[in-house]
């Protein structure tokens, strides 16, 4: 018979009635002893309006704290460089996420005693602000003067900066918000630094002007950089299949192919394009010499009849269009090179021109027909292919019929003829112009099929309108010369998350040049001089040496308003010339990414003074993932490109050490927020509440900050009513934890200040200190690696599970009932005070308002006004107690089984409170049962009743079990922890308490002849 079976039999035999046991009501005098208990007392409110609990601490925890730490911190310099948001409207949730993550990082480093450098900035130039200014003026750009637009744009930007600044402060962002301690890209000093960086790039031979295809936004009337594009997958185009006739009579035709194209089949070249409007600028057809092409005869009638040349690998894909075909001949792609063909619009123009098929490696068999229409004015691959062959060399050799407005110009008539040209001139190439070209294709008989397709297409990220690729004269920065150095500089940069390195490296590595000029009036000017007679642009370091001092003295606006005579140096003037008739100033402005990308230069003086040995200017840059192709790139490129020849000889350095990226903020259903969907959530609404406070409560700033810290920000993250309600509940639990500790450490007079040593602490006390030590180590490590969700998860588990569900529960009896001088109570208070001190440092970077409020109620040192002024000093390694943790885990295993039996008794209405019960833990006789576990149970016997929250626990064995016969009894057996290889089981018996209820402490530990239990009698005396 096994141990458990024998024991159950013995218990049944020995059971006999004990008079008085399990009495339902106490016979003790009905006297109130509540005034003798040390019940929690604190002025710390359970909850309050956000304005009452946060605003009183904001200035102290934000602006005053930033100034204090800058003047008093003795640690090393920490620089978080702020990527400037656009000054063009109220903050959205992405702004809030970004600024809060930065602030958490900064506050952590302040708590470590470091001197934090953080200067908030704003991006103030560019199209969005210019458009907003025009809307407020009620004018179009064509009807307002440049100076009027610039003046209005400046006022708009300055107003929006002030509005955003106030909103950022409501997010609890620690910074010096005075005007002199922030930066704006429209500030004179900032613009001059930017222009000096530009001059260094000019001196390094990296800036040039060129006429070539660029991304161009008709809606913005400006060229765009790749970083200013967004790609939409649902753009609809009307693609066309067109046929070009081969000109076999041309002297330039490939002689070897002449017989093929003079046969009775008379095959045509089949081409597919998604941009029919570019066909007027066709300059070649490209094939891949490595592919195999075929002449196919269509067996269908109609427009598709006849013979066509296509790539063999596309035959199946083209079957729906061509129908049944017969392959007549196979031709290597190399044999097609040099074959002459007639432009589609020759019949309309009355001209008898011919063009040639060229070889190009960018032609593939993945789409289309394997023959690619080349318009170098409207495609970079086309441009480079023809440039490599020497077919284009200057502006005059490129055919382009598109103007600044994205419409056909008069030049198109040269190709399609005057009559046809009149139907095209002035039409938008993306809409009416494209349709008109299709109609002309029908007239020429070259149109084979129109096909509506949905595909990926670039849009202007500011106007949300489709762009085109077209040739214009623009200023470029040569990246081919510096990108290897830029990539080398990234090698010692740490990326969070680490996979984001690939994204930035890919963007930098794929670029060969940067179009830096924009055709806008609101921006930093490109200081080029144009020689009117020759249309030659002059921009050299020498001309800038003349211009920059002048602008530094008179302001950047002098470039726009001042006379041309001021800017043309003597060495450019011819004797006797009238300068204003010979020279003009450039009207182009710089790409706004060049504006913000120059911001690293602001850090140089600070780093020289406070961290001269530093390798990088900024420790951290933290922005959205879209900045891999924006600000992260432009900073890196301008920094590397502006290095002097001496600096170039050294190992290139990135301006930043760590790059952190976060995702986009989505609504609760994972959808992008937009006005049209009506799912936008404003950060100010979360803080202050909406019109209907029941639907949109005023949660306050700390709830918003806790949401930002809890989310895995490196992914796209969601926010909505459910998420906010859950976050509010998490904050409430953290707050209640602090309130419990404040209430129980405020009683007991000065005795509580006598801390108890570790040796005098109970197992539970030592276990909590070990868990607190582990929590703090996790928090420090996670803050250092910017893993804020890990901090929050560890903290909430500690407060909700370790403290609230365990330690607070089992220590209330001691805290309320014991005398202030008892060593047991003083040990608990010692632990609670350390828990409060440590956890306040852990959550202070995330919840600064709560931390300041708790600190206000708990602090003894009035010389430090802010919790952040008290350096976070971690617990010593002596509190790492793996033995206490292991022993506690073993006892918690027993506790879970005890609680199950207590719940069974409660379900059967045998008890209301667990204090009405006692527990017997009966050790087995089995030699296989772990000796150490048995010793642990006996050693902690007096603690077990506290752990189980019962009135008594007896650790015994079958020999000393004794005879009892209670009114009810519940038993169970289980394997003890870490005895997986043993069959021996531990028996637990839950039964009614044998003594009476004490009216003061409510435990069943009072002799019936006494008014109080022994402990309470001593306490009351």
Automatic annotation (TrEMBL):
Q: Where in the cell is it found?
A: Mitochondrion
- Reactions this protein catalyses: tRNA(Ile) + L-isoleucine + ATP = L-isoleucyl-tRNA(Ile) + AMP + diphosphate
What keywords are annotated for this sequence in UniProt? Aminoacyl-tRNA synthetase, ATP-binding, Ligase, Nucleotide-binding, Protein biosynthesis
Q: What is its main location?
A: mitochondrion
Keyword Mitochondrion present in the record's keywords: the answer is no
Signal peptide span per the entry? none
Q: Does the keyword tRNA processing apply?
A: no
Q: Name one GO molecular function term.
A: ATP binding
Q: Which gene encodes it?
A: ISM1
Q: Which residues form the Methionyl/Valyl/Leucyl/Isoleucyl-tRNA synthetase anticodon-binding domain?
A: 765-920
One matching Pfam family? Anticodon_1
Q: Which CDD domains match?
A: Anticodon_Ia_Ile_BEm
The protein's matches in InterPro entries, at most eight in alphabetical order, are given as: aa-tRNA-synth_I_CS, aa-tRNA-synth_Ia, Anticodon_Ile_BEm, Ile-tRNA-ligase, Ile-tRNA-ligase_type1, Ile-tRNA_ligase, M/V/L/I-tRNA-synth_anticd-bd, Rossmann-like_a/b/a_fold
Which protein is depicted?
Answer: Isoleucine--tRNA ligase, mitochondrial
Instruction: Enumerate the spans annotated as Aminoacyl-tRNA synthetase class Ia domain.
Output: 72-719
Biased composition regions of type Polar residues, renumbered to the chain: 140-162
GO process annotations (BP): isoleucyl-tRNA aminoacylation; mitochondrial translation
Q: Where is this region: Disordered?
A: 138-162
Give the family, as the similarity comment puts it. Answer: Belongs to the class-I aminoacyl-tRNA synthetase family.
Lineage of the source organism? Eukaryota, Fungi, Dikarya, Basidiomycota, Agaricomycotina
Q: List the record's Gene Ontology CC terms alphabetically.
A: mitochondrion
State the EC number(s). 6.1.1.5
């Amino acid at each position: 018979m096994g141990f458990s079976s024998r024991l159950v039999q013995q218990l049944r035999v020995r059971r006999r009635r004990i008079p008085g046991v399990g009495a339902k009501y106490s016979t003790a005098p009905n006297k109130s002893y509540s005034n003798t208990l040390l019940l929690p007392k604190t002025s710390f409110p359970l909850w309050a309006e956000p304005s009452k609990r946060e605003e009183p601490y904001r200035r102290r925890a934000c602006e005053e704290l930033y100034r204090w730490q800058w003047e008093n911190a003795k640690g090393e310099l920490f620089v978080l460089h702020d990527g400037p948001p656009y000054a063009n409207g109220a903050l959205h949730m992405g702004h809030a996420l970004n600024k809060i993550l930065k602030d958490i990082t900064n506050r952590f480093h302040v708590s470590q005693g470091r001197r934090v450098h953080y200067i908030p900035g704003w991006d103030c130039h560019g199209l969005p602000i210019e458009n907003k200014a025009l809307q407020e003026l009620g004018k179009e750009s064509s009807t307002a003067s440049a100076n009027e637009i610039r003046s209005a744009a400046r006022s708009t930007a300055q107003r929006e900066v002030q509005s955003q600044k106030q909103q950022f402060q409501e997010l609890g962002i620690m910074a010096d918000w005075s005007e002199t301690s922030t930066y704006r890209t429209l500030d004179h000093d900032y613009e001059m630094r930017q222009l000096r960086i530009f001059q260094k790039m000019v001196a390094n031979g990296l800036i040039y002007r060129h006429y070539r295809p660029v991304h161009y936004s008709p809606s913005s009337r400006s060229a765009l950089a790749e970083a200013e594009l967004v790609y939409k997958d649902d753009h609809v185009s009307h693609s066309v299949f067109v046929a070009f006739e081969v000109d076999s009579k041309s002297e330039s035709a490939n002689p070897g192919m002449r017989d093929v194209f003079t046969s009775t089949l008379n095959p045509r070249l089949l081409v597919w394009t998604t941009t029919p409007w570019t066909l007027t600028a066709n300059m070649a057809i490209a094939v891949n010499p490595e592919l195999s092409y075929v002449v196919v005869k269509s067996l269908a009638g109609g427009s598709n009849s006849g013979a066509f040349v296509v790539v063999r690998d596309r035959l199946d894909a083209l079957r729906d269009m061509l129908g049944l075909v017969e392959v007549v001949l196979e031709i290597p792609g190399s044999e097609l090179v040099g074959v002459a063909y007639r432009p589609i619009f020759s019949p309309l123009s009355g001209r008898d021109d011919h063009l040639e098929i060229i070889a190009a490696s960018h032609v593939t068999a993945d789409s289309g027909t394997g023959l690619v229409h080349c318009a170098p004015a409207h495609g970079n691959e086309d441009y480079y292919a023809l440039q490599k062959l020497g077919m284009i060399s200057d502006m005059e050799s490129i055919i382009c019929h598109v103007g600044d407005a994205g419409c056909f110009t008069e030049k198109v008539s040269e190709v399609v003829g005057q009559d046809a040209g009149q139907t095209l001139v002035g039409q938008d190439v993306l809409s009416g112009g494209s349709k008109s070209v299709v109609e002309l294709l029908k007239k020429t008989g070259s149109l084979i099929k129109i096909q509506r397709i949905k595909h990926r297409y670039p849009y202007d990220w500011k106007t949300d309108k489709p762009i085109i690729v077209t040739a214009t004269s623009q200023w470029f920065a040569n990246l081919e010369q510096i990108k290897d150095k830029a990539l080398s500089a990234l090698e010692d940069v740490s990326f969070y998350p680490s996979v984001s390195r690939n994204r930035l490296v890919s963007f930098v590595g794929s670029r060969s040049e940067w179009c830096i000029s924009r055709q806008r009036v609101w921006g930093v000017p490109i200081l080029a001089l144009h020689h009117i007679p020759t249309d030659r642009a002059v921009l050299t370091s020498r001309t800038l040496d003349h211009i920059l001092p002048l602008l530094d003295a008179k302001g950047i606006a002098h470039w726009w308003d001042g006379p041309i005579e001021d800017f043309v140096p003597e060495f450019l003037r011819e004797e006797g010339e009238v300068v204003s008739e010979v020279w003009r100033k450039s009207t182009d402005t710089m790409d706004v990414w060049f504006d913000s990308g120059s911001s690293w230069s602001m850090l140089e003086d600070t780093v020289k003074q406070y961290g001269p040995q530093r390798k990088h200017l900024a420790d951290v840059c933290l922005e959205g993932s879209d900045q891999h192709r924006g600000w992260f790139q432009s900073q890196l490129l301008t920094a590397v490109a502006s290095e002097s020849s001496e600096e170039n000889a050294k190992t290139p350095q990135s301006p930043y050490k760590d790059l952190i990226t976060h995702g986009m903020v989505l609504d609760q259903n994972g959808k992008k927020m937009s006005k049209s969907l009506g799912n936008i959530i404003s950060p100010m609404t979360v803080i202050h509440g909406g019109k209907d406070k029941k639907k949109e409560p005023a949660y306050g700033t700390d709830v918003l900050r806790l949401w930002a810290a809890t989310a895995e920000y490196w992914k796209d993250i969601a926010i909505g009513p459910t998420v906010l309600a859950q976050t509010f509940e998490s904050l409430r639990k953290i707050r209640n934890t602090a309130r419990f500790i404040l209430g129980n450490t405020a009683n007991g007079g000065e005795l509580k200040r006598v801390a108890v040593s570790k040796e005098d602490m109970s197992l539970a006390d030592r276990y909590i200190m070990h868990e607190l030590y582990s929590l703090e180590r996790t928090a420090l490590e996670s803050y250092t690696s910017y893993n804020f969700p890990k901090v929050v998860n560890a903290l909430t588990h500690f407060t909700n599970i370790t403290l609230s569900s365990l330690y607070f529960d089992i220590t209330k009896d001691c805290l309320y009932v014991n005398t202030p001088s008892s060593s047991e109570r003083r040990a608990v208070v010692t632990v609670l005070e350390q828990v409060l001190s440590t956890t306040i440092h852990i959550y202070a970077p995330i919840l600064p308002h709560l931390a300041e409020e708790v600190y206000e109620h708990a602090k003894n040192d009035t010389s430090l006004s802010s919790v952040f002024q008290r350096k976070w000093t971690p617990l010593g390694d002596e509190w790492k107690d793996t033995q206490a943790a292991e022993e506690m885990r073993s006892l918690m295993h027993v506790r879970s089984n005890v609680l199950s039996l207590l719940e069974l008794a409660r379900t059967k209405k045998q008890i209301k409170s667990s204090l009405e019960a006692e527990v017997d833990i009966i050790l087995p006789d089995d030699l296989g049962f772990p000796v150490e576990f048995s010793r642990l149970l006996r050693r902690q016997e007096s603690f077990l009743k506290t752990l189980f929250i019962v009135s008594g626990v007896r650790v015994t064995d079958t020999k000393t079990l004794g005879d009892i016969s209670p009114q009810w009894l519940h038993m169970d057996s289980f394997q003890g922890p870490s005895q997986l290889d043993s069959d021996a089981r531990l028996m637990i018996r839950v039964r009614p308490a044998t003594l009476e209820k004490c009216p003061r402490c409510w435990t069943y530990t009072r002799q019936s002849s006494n008014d109080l239990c022994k402990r309470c009698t001593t306490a009351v005396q």
